[in-house]
From TrEMBL:
Start and end residues of each stretch annotated as Disordered: 311-332
Protein name per UniProt: Uncharacterized protein
Length: 332
């Protein structure tokens, strides 16, 4: 494990620990706990309508159910960040973090290290709506991810196949309450696929469901693809299939995700950031989808639909510096 040069550290970051496993590399910031920001939800000031008829709202507090993938759904909009909010949100020099808890179950406050102060106004908008729309928020963690960096042409900010956040595979028995997640980016808004997904016949102990999502999107030639507006705050659930969008020119992008998971769903993956404003000590473990050794349900599908972005179409690792493999979601 290495530490970054202190001269490069953002204010409020004590050091950055660098670690790697299975070819992946993580920079984990260690935050200064002094001068924290404590956010408290004020649902009464939230003017956003809660659309009770939308599938994303209807599934709040429900237990994981694969059958819900048959119900097409779009994320729920919370509106677009104002120009003033966007100027703060996109301020350069943001600290990159993965799935850091900023709220614990049985607490109604959200704690941010001061290094993340530029995201407090956006998070306040999110939690005001969350506590207006969601009556059982006391049962959930909230995990924050921030990613800000340049995106090169013909690449994704965050490489991934079609997927969902909060998929409950074979490890989660009995099944848990479902994930719901808020996201926003200033540019290159995420692509969603509000279409039915049929997973009849797949076995969660054997098959990669994300590769099958690739295949079913490709079956439609991406006909159902939909994107929110730039800087639009949205709420999705764990059945909203989505994927990042390639840049067509050099682009500087700022992206935020706030995920709510029930108390059993502890995010203890090595590489996730630690929040010094809470008293907890989780044993962090190496965890990624490759170690599950899953296979494609349709082994005759296009090879690009059933490999990871960091693999060649034959499944072998890409050489260093090679372009990531993209799933062929369109016929032309």
């Amino acid at each position: 494990m290495e530490s970054a040069d202190e001269k490069t550290l953002a204010p409020g970051v004590l050091r950055v620990e660098r670690l790697s496993y299975r070819g992946k590399h993580y920079d984990v910031p260690i935050f200064d706990p002094s001068e924290p920001l404590v956010l408290r939800p004020e649902p009464a000031r939230c003017t956003v309508h809660v659309p009770a008829e939308e599938p994303v709202i209807r599934t709040l507090n429900s237990t994981w159910d694969l059958g819900q993938f048959l119900v097409p759904r779009r994320p729920v909009s919370l509106g677009v960040l104002s120009s003033e909010e966007l100027a703060v949100f996109t301020r350069p020099g943001a600290v990159r973090i993965l799935d850091m808890p900023i709220k614990f179950p049985d607490l109604a406050e959200y704690r941010l290290p001061r290094a993340l102060a530029q995201f407090a106004p956006t998070i306040q908008r999110i939690i005001d709506f969350e506590h207006k729309a969601h009556s059982r928020h006391g049962e959930y963690y909230a995990y924050l991810t921030i990613d800000q960096r340049p995106v090169q042409p013909n690449t994704l900010h965050r490489e991934a196949p079609c997927h969902v956040d909060g998929f409950q595979g074979a490890r989660w028995q009995p099944k848990c309450l479902t994930n719901h997640t808020y996201t926003v980016s200033d540019v290159l808004p995420t692509a969603y696929y509000p279409q039915p997904f049929d997973f009849s016949g797949l076995d969660e102990t054997k098959h990669d469901f994300f590769w099958e999502m690739n295949a079913q999107v490709a079956d439609t030639d991406e006909r159902f693809r939909w994107q929110p507006a730039p800087a639009e705050l949205t709420l999705m659930d764990c059945y909203c299939v989505h994927r990042g969008v390639e840049a067509d020119a050099p682009t500087f992008r700022t992206w935020l995700r706030l995920s709510f998971e029930e108390r059993r769903r502890v995010f203890d993956r090595l590489g996730n950031a630690h929040n010094p404003l809470f008293d907890y000590s989780w044993e962090m473990v190496e965890r990624d989808i490759e170690q599950l050794h899953l296979k494609a349900w349709r082994e005759d599908s296009d090879p690009s639909l059933r490999v990871f972005p960091w693999q060649q179409v034959d499944g072998q690792p890409l050489p260093p510096g090679a372009p990531k493999t993209k799933p062929k979601l369109r016929r032309s």
